[in-house]
Amino acid sequence: MLKKSLYFTHKIREFLRNYLVYYKLIKAVNKLNILFNKSDKELRRYYENCELYLPKDSKWRHFRFFLRDGVIKINDQIRDVKTLRKYLLRYLPTAVFYSTSAWLNPRKIGSLSPNLTNNLFLYNDLVFDIDNINLEDARKDAINLIEIMTKLGYNLESIRFTGAKGFHVFFKDKTKINIKDPIKRELYYKEKRKELLNYLLKNNINLDSSVTLNTRSIIRLPCTVNCKTGYVCTEINHDELKKPIDEILENVKRIKIVPKSMIGGDAEAKFIRNLRLTIDKYQNQIYDYDAYFISNKVLGLKDRYVVFLRYKNEIFPKVVEDIKNLQKKFNLNDAYLFKTESKDEYFALCLKTVQKNKLIKILKNSLAINKNNFNDQFLRISSKYYDESKIAKPPIYIKTINSDSNDSHISNAHLKFLIDKGMKVYRYKNLHGNTELLTYFDKIKNGRISEKRKVIYNKLYLQ
Fold first, then answer.
1. Distance, CA of 141 to CA of 143 (rounded, Å)
2. What number of other Cβ atoms are within 10 A of residue 81's Cβ?
3. Distance CA 165, CA 66 (A)
4. What is each CA distance from 329 to 33, 81, 332, 404, in whole angstroms?
5. Which pLDDT belongs to residue 453?
6. pLDDT tens digit sequence for 382-432
7. What is the pLDDT of residue 275?
């Protein structure tokens, strides 16, 4: 009981320490950002008090922020204005975009995962992007588009001034689609959009067809600042669109944006962005990631396994000593030792094939942290990914602990894995099992497996 109490006390302290460090760092980053960039003061003042807009079914939309030194995807479902404001104030983006399509899992579009639900298409907005350096010409093109679309039986939903070179015009999509397969549904939308665009282009309507045709397009979010001009992306009605462009601009809010020459240099901007992203990973992603793993099970043989040993919080000499003792006691072959980016965390792989009862004896006699796990063991072979960003490299080979007992049967598949990593290995004679590795794609959430999928091994995973 006392041990459990001490364990939970330690975990609570660890959580509070991480929580406090995170917010102290965020505060420091925001101060640095203000020093390097005067525009952020105006942006912060605006986003603290402005009315914000959320598109229909915002929780199914993908949001993307453009920063001064790159692009960041928001790995969250933005369900309300409060959540959106939180991210706007955290990153102070130069531009904010969202997807024209709704997705079942908008945070993971095109991610590492082979899971279809990460790209499950729901529906697409019927939107047209009219861009022209001459805003007056863009205004006239928007009016002509509305006239033609109205004649075709489409109802106008909204018009938005983008804050720069043109307008976004939305219509209610009258096409009824009852296709269950998400891939076929997405293709059907594309075909319908293509037919409509061909008709409009024949009628000399100037627009960016890619936004309408591409179901994975993103467009600027209303009520957010276009930092190229300082204008706020603003919704206007049809009557306002008929006014001269100068009158339209008089009613559009504009934020004072400092010219880029007055902003902190690229090195400073990159430093701020990388520091902020590092803090986010530290707080949110340390226990959440996607990765590929291989099992210690030897396929093609019944009840045969290789030996995986995982060490944590043990000094390197002690790890080596423990492995040598196991080699001597259980006649294990050479052990291949890997290290992760985490401090004092090691993985060892012995290729000798053993039955489960012997594997249990080996584990029980070791200092490994997996010594009491007698189910299948797994070794991470890929980088860790979080929202398509690489947050940790694969375990790195550091040493071979040689043994005098290399005449036993060793796993053919696990040997191939070491060769695929470009390692120099002993020329073993007695190969056991087939060359197929039991491989899984895992999604880790809060340190636990939330999803596990069997996949075909590919050496590209080792990158």
1. 5
2. 14
3. 18
4. 59, 63, 8, 12
5. 80
6. 887 765 566 678 888 888 898 888 788 888 888 888 888 888 787 788 888
7. 52
Domain 38-263, CATH class in plain words: alpha beta
Residue found under tokens 């022209």: 132
pLDDT of residue 131: 87
Domain limits, the chain: 38-263, 289-462
Q: Are strands 431-432 and 410-411 parallel, antiparallel or unpaired?
A: parallel
Most distant CA pair in the chain, distance = 89
Q: Which residues contact 237 (CB under 8 A, 6 or more apart)?
A: 159
Distance CA 453, CA 438 (A): 11
Q: Give the pLDDT score at 369.
A: 86
Task: Compute the chain's Rg from CA coordinates.
Answer: 29
Name the helix (H) or strand (E) containing 126.
strand 126-131
Which regions in the chain score pLDDT beneath 50? 1-4, 16, 19, 35-36, 111-114, 258-266, 268, 279, 282-286
Instruction: Tell me how far CA of residue 456 lies from CA of 49, 294, 303, 307, in angstroms.
Output: 52, 10, 21, 22
For the stretch 281-300, pLDDT in tens is 544 444 567 788 888 898 88
Length of the chain: 463
Helix (H) or strand (E) run with residue 202 in it: helix 182-202
Backbone phi, psi, residue 120, to 5°:
-85, 110
Q: Is 85 helix (H, G, I), strand (E, B) or coil?
A: helix
DSSP bridge pairs for 61: none
C-alpha–C-alpha distance, residues 139 and 244, integer Å = 8
In angstroms, the CA 38 to CA 258 distance is 7
